[in-house]
Amino acid sequence: MQEEIIEILEDINPEVDYKTCTTLIDDRHIDSLGMVSLVAELEDAFDITIPAVEVVAENFNSAAAITKLVARLVEEEED
Amino acid sequence: MTSYFTLIFLVVFLPLVLLAYAAVPKRLRGYVLLCASYFFAWCISGPRITFMLISTLCVYGIARAMDARIQKRDAQLAQVKKGKREIKASCKHQLNQLLVAGVMVNLGILIALNYLGFFGELATAALGLLGIHAHFEFPRIGAPIGISFYTLMAISYLVDVSRETIKADHHFGRLALFLSFFPHIMEGPIARYTQTATALWEGRDLSAQNSYRGMLRMAIGFAKKLLVADRLNLYVKTIFTDYASYDGGLIALGAVLYTLQLYCDFSGCMDVAIGLGQFFGAEYPENFRQPFFSRTTSEFWQRWHITLGQWFKDYVYYPVSLSKPVKRLTTKARKRFGNRYGPLLVSGIALFCVWLGNGLWHGAGSQYLFFGMYYFVLIWLGGFIEPNARAWAADHGIDRERGAYRVFRTVRTLMAVFVGELFFRAEGLEAGLAMFGKMLSNFSLASFADGTVFTLMSKADFAVALFFVAVVFIYDTAYERGFDVRKMIEEKGFVLRWAIWIAIVMTVVIFGAYGFGYVAVDPMYAQY
């Protein structure tokens, strides 16, 4: 799952090392326009819905955090 | 007492509040701050502070109702094994209804007090265009101080309770203090409930360390306002009220000086507000982060009035962007225009809402609407240009983050900001357009050569203002490069750090723009 997420991230901004970066939002590697694209891509790729309340820095600061969020939402969709 | 920048606030109000705060038991300190805050607001707004109380009562009641509904849902979920989704959906629906009611009441008060006259003028003009002669005029009641700030804080609190990211506060006093605390009521920062509410109500002991931090921060704020902002007002006020008498060169300088004035005034007030909070152990969020180092207008708004930008991002931009109809549109646009441009095109809807709101939030006037739309266009178009500029720079081996190209990006952004602030400060859209027109068609440096510029502000005032602008620039540059100047001062020995504080205060006393020959300028953002 994480590799697929990194591919999506690289498509949005290729200038970041997503394997190590843990400040994607804090350091503005992903801006609000990029965030909308990212959410749309993630929703399509994993068949989930990401509500606005989940769009916070702690869920999107790293590829690992995004993976965790997506895994949780996938699980909730299955419930 | 009209603001923090009055003698009565500094030598009577603040010391009395600190004394009372320290004298009463810990459990009563929150009440001391609450009474002080309402007294401060009363001194400025009189009986109109009733509207602040009404908003607080409304927000408190609705959040409690939300809380009761959430508890009912949790009890229902604990009892069933099937049908959980329906129970959650029903609860969500009712929370949304309560949220809409709460937002409508708060926005309704704000609109009734601040915008009805403006909307009446717009309606009269619109009907006039259709040949219908009608005249809408509404009585002007006047708004209490800080209504634009505490209304946004109240809405953010309600949204956060409905999203269940925070729990509804059962203590009315704590919520009332969160909304009305006197340091932020004039100009913000627009804090979130989790950032200040608990800390303020806890009644933390006054400490030597926090008091020094607060006093240093306040001294820096006073320096920015009295050494730079209020002095530049001499030039700015004349050029914006009598622009027809001056050429484009002087008007262009007016736009630059107004931007500096606004920055030093507003960020100076934020220093004072944050410093006051530090006395009582509350850490308010920063509202500025060296905005003049921005590379794009979008970045500028991530560094200027940060708490307002974040509010609009969290409570307008993302909710609109991620709403079902806009998401459906995004999906269609992505298929048609690709992964980058599809979402970008649709994001225009959310950006438009943000900048319409941002413009109107600043005031009821056509120039503010224009200001909002100006940034909407710049930031939206910037989104389309950015990937192409990045690709172009990569193809040509240009490092966009260093050297001449980095300087070019900053200068270009500053030019856009100066133009935006020209329209923002102009006395109406018509005046803004006329000033901008003169800047383009009647630009001349003759007024600088023949000394006309010094009829607007004396050479001595120019020299003092520019010297302290340079000091502010060096101070900001240090922060930009990772040197926390304030922290470095705070960590010095007792004698040195108090010597620095006294030096700042003495500089303000000696060189401050107050008294004979100067007009006291109220904090500029307090009018919004």
Oligomeric state: heterodimer
Record field, number of beta strands of chain B: 0
What characterizes the major β-sheet of chain A?
none
Instruction: Kindly report how far apart the N and C termini of chain B lie.
Output: 19 Å
The best one-word shape of chain B is: globular
Order of helices and strands of chain B: HHHHHHHHHHHHHHHHHHHHHH
The helix-and-strand class of chain B reads mainly alpha
- Roughly what is the average pLDDT of chain A, rounded to an integer? 87
Query: What would the CATH topology of chain A be?
Result: Non-ribosomal Peptide Synthetase Peptidyl Carrier Protein, Chain A
User: Mean pLDDT of chain B, nearest integer?
Assistant: 92
Number of strands of chain A: 0
Rg of Cα set of chain B: 25 Å
CATH superfamily of chain A: ACP-like
Task: Report the C-alpha radius of gyration of chain A, rounded.
Answer: 11 Å
Low-confidence stretches of chain B: none
Alpha-beta classification of chain A: mainly alpha
Tell me the count of domains of chain A. Answer: 1
Structure description:
The complex is a heterodimer of chains A (79) and B (528). Chain A is an all-alpha fold. Chain A is built from four helices and no strands. In chain A, helix 1 (2-12) runs antiparallel to helix 2. Chain A is globular and about 35 Å long. Chain B is mainly α. Chain B has two domains: 7-206, no CATH class; 212-295 and 400-527, no CATH class.
How do you describe this structure in short?
Chain A is mainly alpha-helical and 79 residues long. Helices cover 58% and strands 0% of the residues of chain A.
Name a few traits of the molecule.
heterodimer, A: 79 residues, mainly alpha, Non-ribosomal Peptide Synthetase Peptidyl Carrier Protein, Chain A, 4 helices, 58% helix, B: 528 residues, 2 domains, 22 helices, 76% helix, 0% strand, globular
Write the layout of secondary structure elements.
The complex is a heterodimer of chains A (79) and B (528).
Chain A (H helix, E strand, L loop, with lengths): L1 H11 L19 H15 L10 H4 L2 H16 L1
Helix pairs in contact in A: 1-2, 1-4
Chain B lengths: L6 H17 L2 H20 L4 H30 L4 H31 L1 H14 L17 H17 L8 H9 L1 H4 L7 H10 L5 H34 L6 H32 L17 H7 L2 H16 L2 H39 L3 H30 L7 H23 L3 H13 L4 H4 L3 H4 L2 H22 L4 H6 L3 H18 L17
Helix pairs in contact in B: 1-2, 2-7, 3-4, 3-6, 3-7, 4-6, 7-9, 10-11, 10-20, 10-22, 11-16, 11-17, 13-14, 14-15, 15-16, 16-17
